[in-house]
């Protein structure tokens, strides 16, 4: 399933590939139950994000960056039909006529409103019919005998795809103009002493295992596990906050080309950037629009809706830099006491509400310093959840990468891939049409998930990617510096 972006979600025109070697384990009730719960959770969220709007709002395109919500609604069902009904279950197509309409590569987001899309009642009926048949297949499947079925991989992949679209649909809600229709409780406050946390943590140098060869539901770009030697570095304890980012604005950071790459400065001028997306300065007070509400910008929350160029400029202004993808993952996963790479910063236990801000439980990031129980061994907090974090790294395959179960999920977005510089997964997709340097993909890696990401699609190895101009996604960042003295140590 591929993302179209800002989501990890769209895919179409999928071409099956030979599976890489995977550790097989006997199927059991636990695997089947996990798949059933993952599919159910994804569908509940999909319906919650679409049932709150009338049919005309679902058919409308709220931004050329995004699909009409009814397209996403039908697309998740179409991909479920392709992968679970047909590929896993061996059944005849239910609605093969929908395949070309809901193929993300064939239909860029900006073009989708003109397609003869199913209207919401028909879309709901279709996805319910697909799901009813899929549940029968899941109940009967041996969950072994092929790489797609082992450990219910294809069911997990499909659940992740739908949850990725739920994050995309939430981004559409944020872009939508109109009265608020979504609500959620506020995230927990930062604990006492959070304001006194050290600015940065030291991540010792040395080798660690990056990626995974063992996680049964890991996607192809997370594989295989491999050793990477990372020199010692310092990393921000928490993501950069709105208050810290306001200092960059107040210091004229948007008007000083010294802090911007040439491409970033050109884009800043072209797009007229002067603050994060959805921010507005009114009577000397910074306000933001959040899901139909206007509110003061909270200074202690991680800054959000900044593109890679903005994050990179801030880091340069602060005398620091963005971390590499390997640095980010080492900080999030490496346990110096055991030498192991953990599944999550806190260990191998599944995410829980006290560990990370995930799953759209709260429709905003938690204050910086929250979730002390979810801290990584290095001491950094909020590495999973709250905001996706830009890294300095381009998106590329790991050594030994093998596309599975189809090239279009990841491989076509690597440098030199056929979608390099074309507007993102799914052609133009949500990434917009601004391409990369010299025909290369120029997709930057984001890590860590956001408050909008579901735990099934968020782990220490999970990789997101997008164009460096992308801002509508729930993205922020933290900064790093070399451990060895290198001049200015940062503000």
UniProtKB/TrEMBL annotation:
Residue ranges of every copy of the DinB-like domain listed in the record: 39-169
Keywords assigned: Iron, Metal-binding, Monooxygenase, Oxidoreductase
Required cofactors, per record? Answer: Fe(2+)
Question: Where in the sequence does UniProt note compositional bias of the Basic and acidic residues kind?
Answer: 1-11
Sulfatase-modifying factor enzyme-like domain span? 197-425
Q: Where is the composition biased (Low complexity)?
A: 13-29
InterPro entries given in the database record: CTDL_fold, DinB-like, DinB/YfiT-like, EgtB, EgtB_Actinobacteria, Sulfatase_Mod_Factor_Kinase, SUMF_dom, SUMF_sf
Q: What is this protein called?
A: Hercynine oxygenase
Tell me which species this is from. Answer: Streptomyces pini
| High-level lineage | Bacteria, Bacillati, Actinomycetota, Actinomycetes, Kitasatosporales
